[in-house]
């Protein structure tokens, strides 16, 4: 059996209905890889859609990034289902690990942010970065349902959050 220790692992869990949160999660993954490369360290970044994540993925990760849209003033149902499915399976097993949250919203996002923060507090996770809420301003049904393209400056901020989580694992 090898005695080699494994690389630290960042798990990014995302859900997206019209593309914004997916791009934000990808930017954070890119930022995490870039930070690890700059430090010349190995980092395992798992970017998983919310419906693919089981308890094992949470248990095997060292830090988490949760990224999803606000839908009807709460987390999107798919992201909530990920938390519902796994909450008690990992309770008490992941306390103290670092996390960050990124919400894609139209004009609000606070309900979804609060929900993730409450769940993370129940898991006793430690916030490694301030919560990030990106608002695209969409208000009409047409604008809300349109595919989204997230601006480069917003993606750069998401990249920084990924980089912060990575640096926290590698320092
Ligand atoms: C069904 C539905 C409900 C929404 N409800 C809200 C809401 O309550 N508050 C808000 O700020 N944005 C709301 N939005 C807008 C989205 O949060 C916003 O467009 C977000 O950027 C979408 O992220 P996504 O492209 O990753 O799905 C809603 C969008 C949809 C499709």
Automatic annotation (TrEMBL):
Keyword GTP-binding on entry: no
Ranges where the Flavodoxin-like domain occurs: 10-171
Signal peptide stretch: none
Annotated keywords: Flavoprotein, FMN
Gene3D superfamilies on file: 3.40.50.360
Name listed for the protein in its UniProt record: Flavodoxin family protein
Domain of life according to the entry: Bacteria
Keyword Flavoprotein: yes
């Amino acid at each position: 059996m090898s005695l080699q220790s494994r690389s630290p692992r960042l798990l990014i869990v995302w859900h997206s209905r019209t593309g914004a949160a997916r791009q934000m999660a990808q930017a954070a993954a890119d930022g995490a890889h870039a930070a690890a490369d700059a430090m010349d360290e190995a980092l395992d970044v798992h970017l998983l859609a919310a419906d693919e994540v089981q308890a094992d993925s949470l248990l095997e990760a060292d830090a988490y990034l949760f990224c999803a849209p606000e839908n009807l003033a709460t987390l999107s149902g798919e992201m909530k289902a990920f938390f519902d499915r796994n909450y008690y399976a990992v309770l008490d097993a992941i306390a103290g690990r670092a996390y960050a949250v990124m919400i894609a919203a139209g004009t609000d996002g606070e309900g979804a942010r609060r929900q993730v923060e409450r769940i993370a507090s129940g898991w006793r996770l430690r916030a490694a970065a301030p919560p990030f809420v990106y608002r695209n301003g969409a208000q009409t049904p047409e604008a809300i349902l349109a595919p989204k393209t997230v601006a480069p400056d917003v993606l750069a901020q998401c990249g920084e959050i990924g980089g912060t989580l990575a640096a926290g694992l590698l320092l």
